[in-house]
Amino acid sequence: MAEFLLLFRRGDVATMQQSPEAMQAHMQKWMQWMGGLQQEGKFVSGQPLTQAGKQITGNKKVVTDGPFMEGKEYVCGYLMIKATDLNEATELSKGCPILEFDDGKVEVREIQEIKM
Amino acid sequence: MQNNSNINKLTDHLFRHEAGKMVSILTKIFGTQNLETAEDVVQQTFIDAINVWKIKGVPDNPSAWLFRVAKNKAIDVIRRNKHSVQYDFTDDERILLTSEYTLATTMENLFKEELVKDDLLRMMFACCHPQISQENQITIILKTLCGFSTTEIAKAFLTGEDTVSKRLYRTKEFFREQKIKLQIPSVDELKTRTNSVLNSIYLLFNEGYSSTNSDKHIRQELIDEAMMLCKLLSENKHTQLPEVYAMMALMCFHSARSESRMTEEGEIILLPDQDRNKWNFDLIAEGNRYMDIASFGNEVSSYHIEAAIAFEHCIAKTFEQTNWKQILNLYDWLCKTSPSPITELNKAVAVMQVHGADKALQAIQQFSDRKKLESFYLYHALLGEIYSRLQQATNATKHFETAISLTQSESEKKILKVKILNLLN
Questions:
Q1: Inter-chain touch A43–B104, beta carbons under 8 Å
Q2: So what's the ipTM on this one?
Q3: What residues in chain B have their Cβ under 8 A from chain A's Cβ atoms?
């Protein structure tokens, strides 16, 4: 069993500001998806992220303000999960509620073991 | 602005009825090792209630308000202690409390109303863990499930608050060390574990029913709480055992008569002098219904027999019409299936009614462990009664006097003193 980082990206910030009811309904979907992962013993951890942030670059440690729009996308959350391989992790990621939005993206990355 | 004393009265009432549920839910969340966290959240919630309601008025649904505030406080506790190892959420769905994506929704689910009864039941099984002593079991039950204060528990058991605090501390220590899981015991353990819960419920009930405590209010609360807890067992499909229903029946039959056992001033009225019109016939009928359900299965528990004895008293229209022969048969049976000095003693009362005082005296003299009864006031009260029926005033007085020195109940002392006076006349 390997570990994977799922990075969630969104473009349009405005659609995140929904009505409380819509928000609750949307969070129910996260509950269902993550609850499913938990029941299969595949959930490790994960958090949503605020839009505020800083970026520090290079040995000069240049600080710039976030969010870090690159092609209108910013990271809005992450999850660590367990899966047998990248394919399974990708399949599991298809249930992510971020994909209900047209501009929602899940980036699936395997945790690398550094062998020295 | 609401009247402050009304608000205090309301929150006292709500604490008694909702705190047990809230603690059970919160202990499900934080684990038994963090029972104190759960209690703190409940405490804080009620402090908020008093402060907010005094200013803003009492909400339409005060209970719902309390649960909502407790839920939000639980969320705060989790957020505050994110990096502490204190909360072990790794083993089940509670792991979803560690992610902001699912924290609020999971908390919402854990607080669902339809789960509360099961939460209470699981908490009850944890409180009655076989490794917790009997007296510690009923103490923690009263504290966590029944919303009793340390002072009230001390009052109920006629003991000091220090003793109560020590008992609570020991049980919490046990929870902390053993990390007892909140669960309904597995099938092979269920019967013995349920029986130890029943035993505690029975002790609780007796504490309320017996006249050692003169505080009428506390006694009625103990009876109500015992019946509420037993009802929980009778309503859960896993714990619907015949002895659970038998216990329900027994408590109905006993409490149906509780009103007539005392004067308004809290003085005991003996069975022959009780006004049987004051008996609660609805409760007797309810007891009958439980008795009917209790009769499934092949097993007859001691509670079945005790309920049958109580039933005989309930159906006798007058004291003289009491079917003592049947009661004696039942005591014979009870002495065989679950022998105890107290049962022997109760049987001797039935022997006295059926065969007379001399036979009762013989029966007592044959008791195997009379030593154990020597310090028991009822033993001496009965011997006093027997000797007075045998016209042996000196012996009778001696035993009544010993009985007086052994009971703490003023009301019982008074009755015994009257008996001594009657001997002199």
A1: no
A2: 0.91
A3: 93, 95-96, 98-102, 104-106, 109
